[in-house]
Known about the structure:
With 419 residues, the protein is an alpha/beta fold. The chain has two domains: 3-50 and 350-399, Urease, subunit C, domain 1 (Roll), CATH 2.30.40; 52-338, TIM Barrel, CATH 3.20.20.140. The protein is built from 14 helices and 16 strands. The strands form four sheets. It has a four-stranded mixed beta sheet with strand order 3-2-1-4, with no helix packed on it. Strands 5-14-15-16 form a four-stranded antiparallel beta sheet, with no helix packed on it. Helix 4 (145-161) links the parallel strand 8 and strand 9 (169-175). Helix 7 packs parallel to helix 8 (246-255). It is globular.
Amino acid sequence: MTLTIENAWLPGQGLIRMQVEAGRIVAMGADLLPPPDGERLDAQGMAIVPGFVNGHSHAAMTLFRGFGDDMPLMEWLQTRIWPAEARLSEEDVYWGTRLACLEMIRSGTLYFEDMYWHFHGMARAVEASGIRAGLGAVLIDVAGEEQARQCQYQAEKLCEEAKGYSDRVRFTLTPHAIYTVSGSSLRWVGDFAARHDLVVHIHLSETLHEVEQCVQAHGLRPAFYLDRLGLLHPNILLAHGVHLDAAELDLIARQGATIVTNPVSNMKLAVGGVFPYRQAADRQIPIALGTDGAASNNTLDMFQNMKLFSLLQKHADQDPTVLPAEEAWAIATGCRAPIFGQSGRLAVGEKADFILLRHTLPEVTPTHHLISNTVYAATGHVVDTVVVDGRVLMHNRHVEAEEEICHEVRVRAKRLCAS
């Protein structure tokens, strides 16, 4: 079936008509004739642009949004998050992830990388929601060798079971961090990922304590430790990277790893530093933007995170020219991280993944510069329509099952967070 988008404003080209079939853009242009049948969607002059890529999240933690705010990190984890997570079921994770997907759709995110428990709960939620995601098998072995063996068995099993989902679900390996996963398990991750061509997604250098602990335990800073274990390569996502020094950035650049910065979560949890964006960009390190979980950010709106990312870097460097709007937009849409496979182009042959923005709303008027307005003035409320794989997931800001999802999460969150 053909989907035709009419009267869409493509920046640089003007009003166009776009035709989509089998999840791909098959034709587009100002003078394109509509097919005699198929679905039509009038864009009413809205801007048609690529959607966001959320490079690091814990989607089902929407269940814990606002639960334990304004607390020190370890106190928050030990007294609020970990006890609540111990009660999680697969259905809890399903509904928490459904809410995250709903929020991301409503704010223009079409792909996210996630690290959480109950893989099948996450995967079912992604399938039901219609967006794309990289979903991992969490590895933590602080309890010893038996836990390590169980995690490895689970990863092997899930790697096979994940093939039963659509190609919108990408299976990854998600060892939590160097301080919660042993060196032997990290070596296993590297070997298994290489054999199966899997992306690895890990927290790294989020806090100064993590760095100090790594140096004390291994005589190396975290990036060098990962490299010694064979895990620093083009197929790894390093979440946070706040406390990376110049030598580590040089190493990461040589090895082609991707850093995912999470500025809002880092500021809220007061991790004691700012991601060294300029130094990373100067080394041409692939960079992505993430929200982290809603429990440590409170919003999955990439518009808000993109703006704060740019402003924080300007403030930290005392230079208003750092991270201009066009570059912030490119990073937020995944175009500076080849690991996501995002071209940033809407063209014939590309995936039919895009959003329609209402660029004439009062909050973004006048439109001297669309991208500048999008980065510095807009929020997710400017997103009118979302299309992924040629399927309309939202139009006129309506998403199916909104009320049901919110109701289920309210009920489950109340039980999980009861003292």
